[in-house]
Design brief:
Layout: E1 22-28, E2 33-40, H1 41-45, E3 50-51, E4 65-66, E5 69-72, E6 75-78, H2 99-102, H3 104-107, H4 110-122, H5 126-149, H6 151-155, E7 158-165, H7 171-183, E8 196-201, H8 202-210, E9 223-229, E10 234-244, E11 247-258, H9 262-277, H10 286-301, E12 313-317, E13 337-338, E14 341-345, H11 346-373, E15 380-384, H12 391-401, E16 404-407, H13 412-431, E17 449-453, E18 460-467, E19 478-481, E20 486-497
Parallel strand pairs: 1-7, 7-8, 9-15, 11-17, 15-16
Antiparallel strand pairs: 1-2, 2-3, 2-4, 5-6, 9-10, 10-11, 12-14, 13-14, 18-20, 19-20
Length: about 525
């Protein structure tokens, strides 16, 4: 294994590049795959963001690494470094959520149950697993960046780490992620200055990178639904374009999200294989099952599948261990088995996508309805994320909702979130009033896109006591104040911000509020 990058540097090297001493690292910590992007100030201002595409145990040109861990005695392996015959711990990101936020159906999901069993067997908490993975991912990122820029240059740079999280996550899950990042050593002290950590909503990060891509044309007052379809969660947020040069946008309606991502399509396909093989499925080793899911399904069929109403077959080779030597064929029902291969037809494969796509359709429909109630018309849907790269999802949304759907090619959808996390890091620096992220007071980082306001997901306020008014207050809130000598109404609320209000994305200032209280 590659040694950990030592973030505890012994001395700072002077750097005359006044505007280029900030390094922003964007981490897309996903349910099934994770990615990293990074840029210095100079690179960002020249529209260049670096993507890490080389990983331990894998060749170049892979935009993400599997979010998987394997413990062998005292050694930990992660990502592509895990041997094919190992049974790694997966889906531990979802285990940061409480059962009530997963829902009864998902709690009963085989993938979730399997993840909980792995968690129990590991003897670790979900936070500890996330910390172990983030540590390995961050160390590899720092190794890669140092190799590209040199140790002295990197040691002299201040760091801003942006980790993306699902927009639907509640406060406790975000806090768990912050704790994991701290345990991972990401915030270890550096002579170059304090490392800053920001958590950013995944769809917001995706919007920042996708809408600012070269060649992307948007018009004033356009409204786009950003659909971040990942491995576990699918998050949707709608943005309205305020201006185009540079792009300025505001959240149009409250975002929606659900656990209906790619792993649930995988689970449906695994159930189909299990149902067709029957007892023969139990003859398969964990390695054999993994070979079917990784090599046959995830690498070949799932990312390229598009229904075309032909008689095409999708052939899945089953390891020989599932069959007796004289029984490699089974023609008694569809899909047939020939020479140890299941011959799936188009409808069989389509059914694996049905539940996930139904969940995505519900989310899109809800965004459209909320936008319509607000007097807005949706211009189109922008797809990002691992599942967001699916050509089938692209065709499905166009046909189902009858509107323009935008889907970038190549690695763009899969790396949109980590690239957007870098945007978010520099955008926060652009807004910082204390100039802690900008070297000179007269120099601001030039940002090509920004979000000017968001929809509040919660209401924020303070409790206080008021003079009792029988026409305004409840009798159960009435109590006598011996210090002020009168009846007061307890448990009253002063709201600073209410849910679905549109707070501007500018620094908060504290104000003095005089409330009637007693000691």
């Amino acid at each position: 294994m590659r040694p950990a990058y030592n973030v505890q540097v012994q001395g700072r090297v002077s750097n005359d590049e006044e505007d280029d001493d900030l390094l922003v690292i964007g981490i897309d910590f996903g349910t099934t795959y994770s990615g990293v992007a990074w840029a210095t100030t100079e690179e960002f201002e020249n529209d260049h963001i670096n993507i890490i595409t080389t990983w331990p145990g894998k060749g170049p040109d892979e935009g993400k690494a599997p979010t998987e861990l394997y413990y062998d005695d005292e050694m930990m392996m992660w990502g592509y470094d895990i041997p094919d015959d190992a049974d790694p711990i997966r889906w531990f990101k979802l285990l940061l959520l409480k059962d009530e936020d997963l829902g009864p159906e998902l709690c009963a999901s085989e993938f979730i149950l399997r993840g909980k069993r792995m968690l129990k067997d590991s003897g670790k908490t979900a936070i500890a697993l996330v910390a172990d993975f983030l540590r390995a991912l961050f160390n590899h990122a720092m190794y890669t960046i140092t190799k590209a820029r040199g140790e002295e240059v990197v040691d002299a740079m201040r760091l801003h780490i942006v980790i993306t999280v699902p927009a639907i996550w509640k406060g406790y899950a975000r806090q768990a992620m912050e704790t994991a990042a701290e345990q991972a050593g990401i915030l270890c002290s550096r002579v170059a200055g304090k490392t800053r950590l920001t958590l950013a909503p995944e769809p917001e990060a995706a919007a920042l990178s996708t809408l600012s891509e070269p060649g992307r044309k948007v018009g004033k007052n356009d409204v786009y639904i950003l659909c971040d379809a990942g491995g576990g969660t699918v998050d949707l947020i709608s943005y309205q374009i305020d201006q185009t040069r540079p792009i300025s946008m505001q959240e149009a309606v409250e975002g929606t999200g659900s656990l209906c991502g790619g792993i649930f399509i995988d689970e449906a396909f695994e159930r189909a294989c299990k149902a067709r093989l029957g007892s023969r499925w139990n003859h398969l080793s964990d390695t054999g099952k993994k070979r079917i899911m990784k090599n046959e399904w995830e690498a070949l069929i799932k990312p390229t599948f598009v229904p075309d109403l032909t008689h095409r077959e999708y052939i899945v080779e089953i390891p020989a261990e599932a069959f007796s030597e004289s029984n490699l064929n089974d023609f008694c029902k569809e899909p047939v088995i020939k020479n140890g291969r299941i011959h799936f037809k188009e409808p069989h494969i389509q059914r694996a996508f049905t539940d996930s796509f139904n969940g995505i359709d519900e989310l899109v429909t809800k965004q459209i309805r909320m936008a319509t109630r607000s007097g807005l018309t949706i211009t189109g849907i922008i797809l990002v994320g691992g599942l967001g790269a699916s050509p089938y999802l692209y065709d499905h949304l166009k046909e189902k909702h009858g509107m323009k759907v935008l889907q970038s090619g190549g690695m763009q959808p899969r790396t949109a979130i980590c690239r957007g996390a870098v945007h978010k890091g520099f955008l926060d620096g652009h807004r910082a009033e204390d100039q802690t992220l900008v070297k000179r007071p007269d120099h601001r980082v030039k940002v090509p896109i920004q979000v000017t306001s968001t929809v509040s997901r919660s209401s924020y306020g303070v409790t206080y006591r008021a003079e009792f008014d029988r026409f305004r207050h409840l009798q159960e809130d009435k109590e006598f104040d011996v210090y002020l000598g009168g009846w007061r109404a307890k448990n009253q609320m002063h709201w600073y911000l209410r849910r679905v209000n549109f707070p501007r994305m500018s620094p908060w200032r504290t104000t003095k509020l005089t409330l009637s209280t007693s000691s």
